[in-house]
């Protein structure tokens, strides 16, 4: 008989990473004026992005190492496309401590070898079929819980849960443990700030996944765990630590980012009712509206790199062994690339030229899935929540954070069904 696997909770079961993460990502209401001021003076400059934004430093980064920031669109683009200079080794300190040997911490040739396999699963042709079979059911089940009431907090009751629900079903994990998985998926990334809880979550997931991989190898299903566990390179299964790291990363990367992207899009549309109306009148605008939300206030503002050699960016010398913060949030609002960049405009012609998913060899594996999820979620919202508007009796939404952005609440009203 197959053993029923149990995921271990944190010793302090009351630990709430959804609140704790605010201290790590920051509560900054609007980091963009400062970024604009810095970018206007320097395409690149010395400095630790977290400190400049008033946050505590990342405790996993080695002390005494020089930090730099790259802020202009063109220089961020060049750095993302130059992995031989700007290595992903920077993530061995923080993401490496959370997930282990994940693709985010690797450079070529190791990176290309493993990424090729993982990427195949998330190609547009596969992702498209999940829209009907997984995304729509998850989205609609959540909405069924509140459409009769005429009001909701779209963060707490919807966006926080639906992308995690999707990856959870794709991995075919036990429904009863969904909440615990979600909690540990978020806790593990807090290592850079709360090493104790972060490592505990990471150990508990690390205990669970090898057993799950063994079960799915013995009894194959059509879920993602079975698919990846059976994949081979040069006639051999992928090393177990690589698989475990990938699953740890997946349950976080897939759940935590799309939630923020959808929340930003909804917030900006509700704050700009003329644009929401425009979208209602012409649904063909939806793909561009999604790109504009990702450009305007993308979930991942900063990406880290490590200089593999001495280099120079826009006249600034960066010695080998420096940490470089590629500030996508500054590049995505560079007036040299985007006209009137601080305006949210769902008709912007070049909205999709953003770095919300990065660029180059590490460009987000899940970008096609993220877009399908946001399309399906927004379509359901437009179809099923008529007369959607901000709730005049509740505080208006306020986007927060300097590392990852999201409002804590999004109180809305609509005509009940
Ligand atoms: C709006 C949603 C998303 C955003 C904004 C986003 C953003 C990013 C960014 C910026 C990177 C590059 C990090 C770097 O190298 O510095 C990345 C990588 C990655 N993302 Fe996403 N992501 C999203 C959704 C997803 C989803 C849905 C999945 C999984 C299905 C996913 C899985 C990954 C993985 C595995 C990598 C590592 C790729 C590599 O290093 O080769 N992401 N993502």
Write structural notes for this entry.
The protein has a 5-stranded mixed beta sheet with strand order 1-2-10-7-3. A 3-stranded antiparallel beta sheet has the order 4-14-11. It is built from 17 helices and 14 strands. It has helices at 17-25, 32-41, 49-52, 73-80, 95-99, 110-121, 124-144, 155-159, 162-171, 178-187, 195-218, 224-230, 240-271, 273-281, 286-297, 328-331, 367-384; strands spanning 44-46, 67-70, 86-87, 151-153, 232-233, 236-237, 302-307, 311-313, 316-318, 323-327, 389-390, 399-400, 406-407, 411-413. The protein is 48% helix and 10% strand. The chain has one domain: Cytochrome p450 (Orthogonal Bundle), CATH 1.10.630.10. Helix 9 runs antiparallel to helix 13 (240-271) and helix 13 packs parallel to helix 17 (367-384). The mean pLDDT is 95. Strand 12 (399-400) and strand 13 (406-407) form a beta hairpin. It is of the alpha+beta class and 417 residues long. The structure holds protoporphyrin IX containing FE.
